[in-house]
Amino acid sequence: MKPVVCWDFDETLGYFRPHEFAWAGQPRPASMPPPRLKPGIAELLASLPAFTHVVTTAAVREYARDVLRQYDLLRHFAAVLGREDGMWPKDYGVVARQFGVTDRQMIIVGNDPNDADCNGRPIVLIYDERMMDRPAQPLRALLEDLARLGFDACRREGFSFEYWGNYEARKTYPVVRTILPMC
Fold first, then answer.
1. pLDDT at 97 over 90
2. What is the CA radius of gyration of the chain?
3. DSSP 69-117
4. What is the per-residue pLDDT across 40-93, written as a single tens digit (0 to 9) for each?
5. What pLDDT sits at residue 130?
6. For residues 145 and 150, what is the distance between their CA atoms, to the nearest angstrom?
7. Which of 45, 54, 101, 160 has the fewest C-beta atoms under 10 angstroms from its C-beta?
8. How high is the pLDDT of residue 108?
9. 183 vs 83: CA distance, rounded Å
10. Dihedral through CA 171, CA 172, CA 175, CA 177, nearest 10?
11. Distance from CA of residue 173 to its chain's centroid?
C-alpha cells in the first residue's frame, strides 16, 4: 500500500485566490497579486510515484479541480477532496477510509495550522507559513526520506530538512529544523 500525501491547495500548491473570484463570477480585487504555482511543484509531483497524492482543501471541490486542470496538475492527484467531502474542518479519516490506509501512512503538507486534522490524529504535518514561495526541491528530499525510512522514523528527533518549520511553535526557520508529528 502506498503512503498518501494530503496536499493543501491554496498557498501550498500555489497561490490561486484570484481564481476563486473568477470562478464565483466576481472581479478580482485590484490589490490582489496574480495567481502562481509553487516553483517546481509539477516536477515534484511527477517525481514521487511512490506516494498517492490527494488534494485536501477547505475550498469547494469543483473550484479546486478547475484550477488544477488549468495548471495541468489534476493528473497528478488520485482525488480532490473539498469542504463538501469533510475537509472543513479537515478530517483526514475521510482520506484514510477512501484509500484504505491508516493514519500512520499519511502525510499532510500544508501552510497553516488549520491544515491539521480536526480530530487530533497523529499524522505528520509539514508546516511552513510561506510554503507557496519556497521551491519544491527540499520537499522532495523530505518525502523521499520518509518513504525510505518509514513513518515511525518521524517520531524521533534529529530529522533535518531545509526550509521546514516547527508546527507546534508555529515558526518557520530559514534553515534546517525538525519535523514533528501531529500529537
1. yes
2. 16
3. HHTT-GGG-SEEE-GGGTBTTB-THHHHHHHT--GGGEEEEESSGGGS-
4. 899 999 999 989 999 999 999 999 999 999 999 999 999 999 999 999 989 999
5. 61
6. 8
7. 160
8. 83
9. 23
10. 50
11. 18
> Which of 131, 142, 136, 140 lies closest to 178, judged by CA?
142
pTM greater than 0.85: no
What pLDDT shows up at residue 111? 76
Asked if 96 and 106 touch (Cβ cutoff 8 Å), the reply is yes
**% of the chain residues with pLDDT over 70:** 69
Amino acid code (one letter) for 128: D
pLDDT value at residue 163: 33
Question: Backbone phi, then psi, for 150, in 5-degree steps?
Answer: 95, 155
More confident residue, 134 or 175: 134
Q: Please tell me the CATH code under which domain 4-155 is placed.
A: 3.40.50.1000
The domain limits of the chain are 4-155
Q: How far apart are CA 112 and CA 130, in angstroms?
A: 9
Comparing C-alpha atoms, which of 182, 164, 8 is closest to residue 95? Answer: 8
> Contact, 55 vs 81, CB < 8 A?
yes
Burial of 103 (0-12, 13-18, 19+ CB in 10 A): middle
Strands 36-37 and 52-56: unpaired
